[in-house]
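Schema walk-through. Below, the input block comes first and the output block second. Nothing else is stored per chain. Lengths vary across the set, and this one has 252 residues.
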Amino acid sequence: MGWRKQAVPDLSQEVQARVERFEARLDSVHEGIAFHVVFHAQVRSVPASVADVDEAARAVRIALRHEAADFLRHQAATDLHSVQDLLAREMANTHTLVAPEVRYDARVDVTLLPGDQAAVEALLAAQREQSIAIAIRRKEIEAVAEELSEPAAVMARWATTDTADWGKRSGEAKSLAELFAAYRPPGRHGVEYALVETVREFLASFPEPAQKQMLYGLLGAGMQRAERPAHAARVEEIAGAAEGTRAPSGSA
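--- output ---
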């Protein structure tokens, strides 16, 4: 608010002389860090009935400090320029004390004393270090989580630990291996993988060995017709191995 030139009584001039410039150290939102505020008050009117000029000036100073303190205790000292603008806008209106009845307004300059400035720099450095540490830790957690989402990686990690005792845990390892072998991570394989899974489930739905041999023969014949003899030979090899694993008829 610009200063208005107007004639003021001598009493107003006396109060003005006592509030022209005064200072205060007011807390910020950060514990232990405060703003250094310089007030420049402008007295607009003082009634002739005011008996104590010093008391009137003191009341103005106290009122301005309280108003600024109420505002600044919610402000961060890490952005001094914004605080300066916000407080200046907050203090720009004309105020009136009830007793004594003094009308005034004020402009303010907000700074940081060297100790508080050093504290702000230390705070910002600590916040940066913490943010970097959190980001690194988050990346580490994400990497470990991604690795452990693959059963083979879990088995490999377990097998390479110094505490792994496979002699005592062979049964447990077998159960885990079977569970991991059946694990199918969602969304990581294409249509071909889904088709293979369907064929596997289809073959598994025929429990009798003779049925499986018939299916192997049909699959091999289809590969021969598709001019894929190498694949047909592999199917025949698999079928022969499956036939050989059956227990002889009448065995115990």
